[in-house]
Structures are given as C-alpha cells and as structure tokens.
Amino acid sequence: MAKKPAPPGPHGVLTRLDADNESRLLRSAKTGAALRLAPGLYAVGATLPPEQVARHHMHTIAAHYWPGGVLCGRTAMAGGIPDDGILFVAHPEPGRKNEVRLPGLVLWPITAPGPVPGDMELPQGLHLSGPARVLVENIDVRGRPALHRAGTVAVEDRIDALARSGGTGRIQGVLEQLDVIAGSFPPNAVAAVRKRLVAVLGTVTGGFTAMSGHLAARLDGAPFDGFRLQMVEALVDLLERRPPRPLAALPPVSRWEWLAFFEAYFSNFIEGTEFGVDDARRIAVDGVFPAARPADAHDVSATYRLAVSPTDRVRVPANGDDLIDILQARHSMLMAVRQDKHPGEFKEVNNYAGGYQFVEPALVAGTLKQGFAALDRLHSPLARATAMMFLVTECHPFDDGNGRVARLTANAELSAAGEVRVLVPIVMRNDYIASLSGISRGTGPGQPLIAVLEHLQRWSAAVDWSTYEGAGKTLTECNAYLDAGTAASRGQRLLFPS
Prior knowledge:
CATH class of the largest domain: Mainly Alpha
Number of domains: 3
Number of helices: 19
Oligomer: single chain
Order of helices and strands: EHEEHEHEEEEEHHHHHHHHHEEHHHHHHH
Helix content: 40-55%
C-alpha cells in the first residue's frame, strides 16, 4: 500500500502555480487552505502567521527568482537574515530586476557578481558572501548607491571583530581572499577595504581615518570590548539619574580606626582566603605570619596595607592610562609572593567564573580606558565607586586577585571624597556577587548592584570601628560573620547596629 504523503508542517508546503494546479490552488487560497506569498507562489497548509511563513520560505523563493544568487550586502553582514525587513540577493543577470514583496519581507535583487571564491554555499543553490566580499560590498565609496550597504562603520567594526577572534592570521587570510576576488568588484571599494586590513596588520600607517571607535582604538593599540562597554555605559546612565546620597566619614578619626582591617579581612574571606578574625588580626596588624599558609597570610596583610595606606587608599585615576597604572601597582603589591599569578601584569589567557568569560586579554587595556571615559562623567563618589567596581570586575584584568583590587579601587573613590568606604561582610557575599553577575548576564543595567552598595555603605557608616573588640562584638550581633548560604537557609540577614 502506498504511503500517504506526510502532512504539511505549520509553515506549509511551498507550491508554484502552474496549469495543472491553478484552479485547485486558487480555490484553496479563497478558503484559507493556501497562502499566497508572491506572484505564482503559495504555501499550502500553512497555519502560522503569513510573516512567519514568508521568513521560513524566503531562501527558496529567492532561489526561485534568482537561481544561483548570493545573499549580499547588509544581508550578508547580518549572517543571511533580512536587515530591516529586506533580503538582498546579488545576481549577475537577474531575470527579475524588481523587488518581490512577501508578507513582512522584501526580496531585493542587486546586479552584482555571482558566487566567487570564499562565498559560502547554502541550500537551494544560493550562496552567502564570504568574509572579504562582505567587506567590499558594504563599505561606503563615493558614487555608489547606499541602499544595500551597511556602511563603513559596520565594515570597520567587522574588521575589528575578525582581528579579535582570529588575530593577524585571520586578517591575513581575508587579505589573501580579497586579492583573489578583487577583479570582480569596483577597484575603489577593494582599495578602501585593503587599506583597513593592512593597517590592522601594522604594515602601513595613515591613508584613512577610522570611523569606527572599535577599529580606531585597535589602530591606536588599545582595542576594546564593545559589548562590555555598553554594559558600563548603561550602568553609568542609570547612576547618573540617581540623586547623590553622600555619607561623610565624620570626625573623630578614631571612629574609623579598625575599618581598614575588617575591610581587608572580609575582602579576602569572600574570595576564599579564610582565617579566623583573631588570626587575621595577628597577620595584618601584628605581622605574625603562620608557617602553614604564608601566601594566604600575605594576601590579607597586603590588602590591609593598601586599605590603610594614607596615600593609596585615596589614590584615584585621572584618566584611563592612570587607571591601568593604579590597578597594576595594587595588584603587584597584593600578589607579590605569588609569582605564578604574575604580579602587576595583565592576564594572557582568558579567565572565567561559573562558565562566564570575562574580557579577553587583548581587549583589557582598551576596555579599561574606554570604560573610565564613560564613568568619568559621574560626580557622586558612590556612583563612581559603583561603576568602577563593575568595570574592573567585568574586565577581570589579572590571573587572580581581581575582586580585591576592584573593591580597593572602588573604595578609593569614596575615601578621596571623604566618604565612608564600603565593606562586604561574609553574610552579604552571595547578594554582592549576584548583583555583579546580574549585569554580566543581562538581567538589568545594575539596579541590584546599586541597591547592595548603597545598603552596605549605610551599614558601614552605622558601625563604630573605633576599637577591635567593640567592632567585633557589633559585627557578631549584626550577623556579619555568618556564612551567606547558611544565613539564607535560616532566614538570617545583615542587621544594622542597635
């Protein structure tokens, strides 16, 4: 027995009108059993909205009108999907030179070369412009219509992305591909692309001014992570709209005597360098190092020395280069006995937290510089501290010690303005980490981080830090020493001093 044909999927079966099926198709279209997508083309049995059906069949329809065509221009820059509802198709001799309008979509023919070396073969006999071709098709060149082109900024961003993902080897490969296809495209467009590629390789200088911030930064020796910069800018925009709530570290000075010690103690504890608080005091204040854990003891001691230093605790950057110098100096002191962590040197391999990758090594310096430029418009010390903490944490510029360096650098913004420094007690560790990672993972521009740091600054201001014993007693009463997970399971939280 012959098998019954499989029922059509929700997108229907694309069917071309001909003499044999014309009457049947037209009746089906009247009853809604067939959807007319374009002249002579119907989707039989489609149950989804017309726009979704058209998107599903767009490549097959494009191949029907322009067999052997190449998805080109802005479409190729977008990876073969319509840009602003238009799918651009290159064909050397398009049989139909007018656009085809589908529900929610336009197929737009461009008279241009067919497949060339480097183009990617797609189903239905179509191709997608290759890495070199897509640059030539999209760059702005005088005298060329701009309809299907993404523009020079997009081209330069793509070149920067190629260099970021594949280094000079990838750029060299695209250059070689450009040489192969050069004869098929306008010489001025090819020359404009070549100029930019060889500039990335450093073999020529001058000849053009980069319009893309990404490529300009790369040519200046400081490429940056644009996605991370957008995060910083979104956080800065949010902070800029909040009214300042200054909390001055008021006299007497003795009230803050032990704050730096507990700041260093908590900052190390939440990073996994755990000592009893009395042991940490002997290490940091008395200089008594345990024989069993000298490197961990040095971490606590160095963090304390940086937090209590009358010069470093108020040292803030004036520009992006200054920020890099300060971070490297702090890290050099913090990791002095851990030579395997390359004290004072930026990372050379990617680092991760829970599968999340921080800024790539080659982009760290540039991202720090661009990020500082973004946050430098903030005036509130706590706002600057918040943005600085996120910027340094998100870049994660070192092999280790990033959290401690980030907190020291953020707190310096507060101390320089005479405000109360922020401590992150053990019980708040999970809230603090979650508020940072929430921005990284795209759950919001930073409201939780702002709330956590504002709360912790108010709490830090409420504690009397004048004596070790008195502060320790208050911290116990406030649940500051509790493990964050245990406290959460018991419904306990950080309390303000009574």
